C-alpha cells in the first residue's frame, strides 16, 4: 500500500468540506450584495459580508496554490513559490482576522436591531443579520 497518497475517505471529506465552505462564502458575498442597502442601523454590515467572503475566497485560492506548488519539479522553484505563497497567505490571514474583529464590533454594537422596515433608524434585514451571525460563529 502506498502511504504517500491520502485515503479515499480523507479526500472525500476534504471535497465535502471545501464545497460547504465555498457555498457559505458565495452565499455571504451574494446576500451582502443583495441586501447592501437594507441595514441603515449599520450600513457597513453588508459590506463586511462581501469583503469577508472575497478575502476568505482569496485565502482558499492561495492555499490551493501552495498545494499545487508542491508539483514543481525544481527544488529552487518550489522553494521560491512556497515562500511567495506563504508570504501572501500570512498577509491575507492577518487581514481576515482584523476584518473579523472589525465586523464583530460593527455587528454586536447594534445587536439586536429592529427587523421592522418601518423603523428605519434601527432597522437591519433579518436574513442578512442571521447569515452574518452564523458566519461569525463558525
From TrEMBL:
InterPro entries: TMEM272. It comes from the Eukaryota. Keywords: Membrane, Transmembrane, Transmembrane helix. The chain crosses the membrane at residues 12-35, 47-71, 78-108. This is Uncharacterized protein. It comes from Onychostoma macrolepis.
Amino acid at each position: 500500500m502506498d502511504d504517500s497518497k491520502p485515503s479515499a475517505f480523507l479526500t472525500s471529506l476534504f471535497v465535502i468540506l471545501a464545497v460547504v465552505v465555498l457555498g457559505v462564502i458565495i452565499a455571504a458575498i451574494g446576500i451582502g450584495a443583495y441586501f447592501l442597502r437594507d441595514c441603515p442601523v449599520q450600513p457597513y454590515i453588508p459590506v463586511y459580508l462581501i469583503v469577508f467572503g472575497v478575502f476568505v475566497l482569496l485565502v482558499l485560492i492561495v492555499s490551493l496554490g501552495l498545494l499545487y506548488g508542491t508539483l514543481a519539479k525544481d527544488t529552487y522553484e518550489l522553494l521560491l513559490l512556497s515562500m511567495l505563497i506563504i508570504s501572501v497567505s500570512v498577509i491575507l490571514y492577518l487581514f481576515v482576522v482584523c476584518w473579523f474583529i472589525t465586523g464583530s464590533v460593527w455587528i454586536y454594537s447594534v445587536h439586536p436591531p429592529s427587523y421592522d422596515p418601518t423603523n428605519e433608524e434601527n432597522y437591519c434585514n433579518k436574513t442578512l443579520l442571521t447569515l452574518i451571525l452564523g458566519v461569525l460563529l463558525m
